[in-house]
Amino acid sequence: MTSGLVSFCRVFKKSSPNCKITVYLGKRDFVDHLDQVDPVDGVILVDPEYLKDRKVYVTLTCAFRYGREDLDVLGLSFRKDLYISTFQAFPPIPEERKPNTRLQERLLKKLGQHAHPFHFTIPQNLPCSVTLQPGPEDTGKLSIVLHCLCSLILRSFDYEIRAFCARSVEEKIHKRNSVRLVIRKVQYAPEKPGPQPMVETTRSFLMSDRSLHLEASLDKELYYHGEPINVNVHVTNNSTKTVKRVKTSVRQYADICLFSTAQYKCPVAQLEADDQVSSSSTFCKVYTLTPTLNSNREKRGLALDGKLKHEDTNLASSTIVKDGCNKEVLGVLVSYRVKVKLVVSRGGDVSVELPFVLMHPKPADLSSSRPASVLTGCIHSVSSFLHSSFTQDDDLVFEDFARLRLKGTTDDKDEDY
Description:
elongated; 417 residues; 6-stranded mixed β-sheet
């Protein structure tokens, strides 16, 4: 290794409000590789004087929410657990023991005898972490409650690790004496993208044997977040009508497959050009669209990766479904399409749609399991959601996650993401 360069391993940690329990994780994003999901393994450190004769438990929960926790009013719960797994970290159960990872071994050596490892396996058929963006009309607590009562709008799918000490797992857990840490289940772009999208259609008009032909294509099927999309449009107008305008847009589709089916459809990039195509002529042009969250923050029902509080949040990635998998168990299926529409004089508009995939590229080092845009922006935006307190020991670097408060609220709730 070159002199002067220091390689280090990042470790995320979070302590309970009373500082008696601390959880250590090597990453917070866990990748769904379609054939398997990254295992969740970490270490929990407990103050022995606080533990006494109790046991140490860690739970992994996948839940969907119909609103924030501070809206659980009137005896109504807006959270439903889809999956719960419990691991007894201390005293360990022999049949549940697994070989420790290298990071766990190093943490156990550094933290001492009161540190205990834990392991979880996320089932493949659980959904990826997705949040549906609330609209401007949903900012008030009362409006969200009433809205949820009327339509039960899904808010998010979350994965949460909770660590606590208790005599039994059924014992009531107090926030002061427990650690809650939200993790994410993510997917990355496939290594082999599909074929180049191309579609064409021909429209004939009443009382005329002459037609209007539209052909549209994309330069590729797979795009990364923030990458411009080039839409190739070719029009052959043999009809007697005139094409007055050309509209191109990128639309996000979020199919909710949970108990009942529903679909959100949101335009995330639009372009309208006054390009005219007169009768008996041809037209060819490339339109460029770039779908981003920045221009869509007020749109209700928009699917996002993770939660809304962070600067690194982006439009939700396309959902990749394994062959033979039941789509109904995946919760939310996100897809994208480019729509090209020709506005024709005296009616009879012509349109086509081109499906494509929008995702993060697979990082070169999957040990961090962070989307590329997150890794790039983390250096600049880390102060907004992390304390800049790095404690380096050998090649381990510990990062303390700050407790965030949602703007506009006055409670002292612990925000975990």
